[in-house]
């Protein structure tokens, strides 16, 4: 293999020793901040408000019951968003040394394009997204073909399946594997803040009128303002991602529409993955309605192939071959998932033929 090809091998962080440890620790600071705010809000709401301020037993029971349900769902979704592994590209998309050497030694764009197209055809890779110039999308840092909707995350240092964005507040990529968890995290965080604000409002008014004579009144005052502040920021972010779910777009795709190649035609279509509002929702939240609002994995698909609005007779083959793209060591775990959801995905595609894409 040429020296040039060796340079283009997967890159890892140049930091080592104390610098690397400090960098990794610093990435957890936003998460630590959120956890600290939640712990303090628990003390302010449960101890100072409910135990020391609220007099009615019925009111206390209602507040504490609803509060702990919302807190549990919020923290569960937050945990899942943080610790769910990012979706990695199957090894079938990586260029072998021989093709990598030919790609790096090619002197023209046409030569490099021919290497990528030949490898894609040989591996029968289901890639329909293209670059602005109509070429197959290739990551030179990871030396692999990018599956549809896959992008390279500079923070994680690798390509991630259906990357939406890298979120510092969860110290993780928001992508195919945890996008449902991220939506639920935003939704339950918003409900958590709104509930605290609504139930502390009357005590804030009492404080304003100098009628609140308890030692922890400033905790109650601050938890009211903090919940309002977070709710204002969350409502816009949550609403935006609900819009993206309904449109079946990622944040990256909303800024730059994906480019498709269908047969010999290359076109840019911002709604290329949209199958209708309901079907788009089902693709993220799954076909089991009882699990829609629980932070458990129910999203349909494998993160590599997706039903497309512009693909008709090719779609069934695309979905039928979905299990090929699991790595060999993951096949046993993946087969059950595929078998459970392939039928639901086919139903989504069939319904999309009778639904005006949005």
TrEMBL record:
It is an enzyme of class 2 (transferase). Signal peptide: none annotated. Pfam families: DHHC. Its main location: membrane. The chain crosses the membrane at residues 21-42, 62-79, 181-208, 220-246. Its EC number is 2.3.1.225. It catalyses: L-cysteinyl-[protein] + hexadecanoyl-CoA = S-hexadecanoyl-L-cysteinyl-[protein] + CoA. GO terms for cellular component: membrane. It is a multi-pass membrane protein. Keywords: Acyltransferase, Membrane, Transferase, Transmembrane, Transmembrane helix. It is found in: Membrane. It comes from the Eukaryota. GO terms for molecular function: protein-cysteine S-palmitoyltransferase activity. PROSITE patterns: DHHC (PS50216). Residues 135-255 form the Palmitoyltransferase DHHC domain. Belongs to the DHHC palmitoyltransferase family. The DHHC domain is required for palmitoyltransferase activity. This is Palmitoyltransferase. It comes from Halocaridina rubra (Hawaiian red shrimp). The gene is ZDHHC2.
